[in-house]
Amino acid sequence: MTRFVAPRIAAAVLIACGATLAAAPGAFAQSKPAAKPEGRTLSLGGSGGSGGPILTRQELKDCLARQDTVAKASAALVAERSELETMRMQIAAEQDALKSERSKVEGSKEAVASLNQRYRELGERVEQWNERTKSSEERKGAAGERERRQLERERQEIQKTQAALDAERAQLAVGNEQAVNSFNDRAAAVDSKVKDWNKRNDDVFQRAEKVNADRDLWAGECANRRYREDDEILLKKGAK
Q1: pLDDT tens digits along 99-147
Q2: 134 belongs to a structural domain
Q3: 107 to each of 120, 180, 211, how far by Cα in Å?
């Protein structure tokens, strides 16, 4: 009698198939690429040991750009503060000079007051002269003649004094007007500089507040985040 062996062959085939299926996961595990080494990491805060996720290259690029912007803005503020300090000292010197010029203007006022006092004294002398002249007209003889000659000499002296006072008044009027105008012009110029300085100083203060806020924000978002040194090298070479 003939015997069939087909079931054994079928079993062998099934076993072979089962072995193939069992080996597949191991084969896939061996072909999976190895993870890329992290490489050396640093941080913008100066240490590579900071926690948190590593910055992507684009995030690193943005953080470096923001760091450069803050640094340039800070340097500009330092330079402008230095310029403002120089201007402040110059304005202070001009204000001191104005105080000296003001004293000269005040001195001219004293000269005017003195001149007015001498005019009043001259006016009193003229009144006295007029009274004496009127009374001398009634006198006769040698005594009256002597008094009239004396009055004539006094008249000439009064005229000379009047002319001198008039000349001094004219000179004082011109000099005082020039001094006052010069003082007012310089005072207005200094006042304008003070207003401009205050405006610039306020602007610098506002900009400094913004730069400080930007620096604090950068410190929170960038300074303590790690990045790959390789990414920094590539960015410096122009990589995107």
Answers
A1: 888 877 776 777 788 888 988 998 998 998 898 888 877 777 787 788 8
A2: yes
A3: 20, 11, 51
